[in-house]
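Protein in question kept underneath.
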Amino acid sequence: MGLFGNQFSNVVEWQETKDNVMFWKWKNDEIKKGSRLIIRPGQDAIFMYNGKVEGIFKDSGSFDIESQIVPFLSTLKGIKFGFNSGVRAEVLFINTKEFTLKWGTKNAVNLPAPGLPAGMPIRAFGTFSCQISDYDTFIEKIAGIKNQYNVEEIKERVTTVLNPLLMKWITKEGKDMFNLQANAFEISRGIKEDLDFEIIKLGITITSFTIENFNYPESVQKMQDKVAAQSMVGDMNRYTQMAMVDNMGNTGNVVGGTANQMAGMANQMAGMQMGMMMGQQMVNAMQGSMNNMTNAAAGMMPNQGMYGQQPMQQPQMQQPQAGGGAVPKFCPECGTATNGAKFCANCGTKLA
């Protein structure tokens, strides 16, 4: 008898294989005696009879329908399963998880802009999350006439109302059109509230809405890059000065400065000193050449008297300077030519 009766039993369950299905309706001629209901984690089971909700079951597990389910159904609680007859009912399985989807504007949103009669075309993209929240409304609007519902259909509904919502919240309170990303959080929050107000009519709640990026026309993006580059060049001198000050500050503290930082600072200072020395040597060399040319020209000019030419005067010997002693031609420390200078241009040694 028991073996024969099991031939009429069935299992009411939803073996969910796709992550994008929000609900699935189990339909059969009737639920037989000995049938069991299996509810998996992340699922709710709703018994319906003649299009009306009889009971909602949210605990996961395996249940005997006759003894554990039917007694809790509104209309069917007093029904008795016969040997050959069962219960004609539908079971609606709800996916209770939160769905996260990517969105993007189908067409560019033309925002009012000075000097652009047609407006500034801007596109945006991001993500939003949704979840079934009101079973009665969801069944009335969607599940009552469908056998299953994919989350892509919700995405389609969302994208159809995104453009006017973006227009509303971007232009609200005079947002900076060329720096919308700075106001993305505020714009997203406003859109979420308005979007949830529309989608809740289907029994679905928008749990989050984010804007990841705004896309400007290519010509506007190139202009922004150009302005940013010009700004960087204009501040390059200040940046270089600040970088040198930071390096000096970091290496000035012997305890905190690392060996690499100190070595880098030493190299910079050595390079600056070498450059100054080379510049001083060039100046001294040019002055020495000019002095030699002047002395040569003065020695070749004849000294004229009243009655004729006088003998050329012999060049006078270099007189000792007040500092005590003549300036040597070469530095006694490093051997660099002095060119008459009082200090060596290479090592700084006092020469007179």
